[in-house]
Amino acid sequence: MSYYNDIYKKRINKYGTGYLQRIQGRREEEFERRLAKSVYKVSFNFSNELQDATLERYKQDDTHTLQYLLTRRNLQIPAGTIIEIADEQDSSNITRWMVYWLEDIRASGYNRYIVLKMTHLLQWEDRNGEQRESWAYMFGQENNMIKDELKSRSRSNVLYNENLKLSFFIMPLNPYIQKDIYIEVGQDELKEGYRVTGYDRQSSQGVEYVSVDPIYLFDTSTIATPKEQRTGDSWEWLNMRGDK
User: Distances in Å between the alpha carbon of 181 and those of 68, 94, 126?
Assistant: First the structure.
């Protein structure tokens, strides 16, 4: 038995064979310990596998609209992906979050994603008559925090150039969103209708900003068809003159 090869070398190379690998290995091990005992620990399905992470407060966001999602380094989640997180006390209570972007923090043992809470289910009919739906976050112009984040992430450093009095939806990239289509949001007496006035698919990878204008609800019910089509003699009474 060689003490150098069997004990010392294995111990010193526990986290890798190079200096940087060892440092990174220690950081990832520290995150594993943090993940195991964190009160913010959550689980979600991604690529048909159950993943563990922590969902933590984002800066000074008291509304919990934006959050940090901390995951293991080997978990890569594309921007625009929606993950579902169930309440531990009530599994039927599901919160949906869209991965907004990944912060590049190389000196850490985890990935830190910025996630946006999905608040509205959009439903619409595309140009081919197919029914579509997507989760989204709706915000108005008074939401300065979200607007500032959008400006900071935008390639052109401006929010989508549209009428400032309109509302916006932030949603995963969707090829079936087109200008002037009709969108419904909500259920029953709380349902509202909107017309798409524009969209931006370029400012953030995997994410789409859709500007909308509120309109009256459309009547989308189908026209009732008569049970019997009256032809020929069925209309004979219209031609009767009263002559014997």
Answer: 34, 29, 7
CATH number at residue 26: 2.40.10
- Identify the domain containing residue 62 by its residue range: 3-117
In a domain, 231, yes or no: no
User: Which residue, 120, 85, 83, 76, is CA-closest to 98?
Assistant: 83
Question: Could you give the count of Cα atoms lying within 13 Å of 121 in the half-sphere of its Cβ?
Answer: 8
Q: Which residue has the tokens 């563990």?
A: 52
Tens digits of per-residue pLDDT, 113-136? 999 999 999 999 998 999 999 999
160 and 106, same domain (yes or no): no
Beta bridge partners of 96: 84
Cα separation, 165 vs 163, whole angstroms: 5
For the record, the structure tokens of 80 come out as: 């625009």
pTM of the model: 0.75
**Domain-embedded: residue 95:** yes
Do the domain assignments include residue 233?
no
Kindly tell me the burial class for residue 41, based on how many C-beta atoms sit within 10 Å of its own C-beta (0-12, 13-18, 19 or more): middle
- Given a cut of 50, whether residue 158 has pLDDT beyond it is no
With beta carbons less than 8 A apart as the criterion, state whether 112 and 100 touch. no
d(CA 80, CA 210): 14
Between 93 and 64, name the one with better pLDDT.
93
Domain match, 155 and 196 both = yes
Last residue of a domain, one of 93, 117, 141: 117
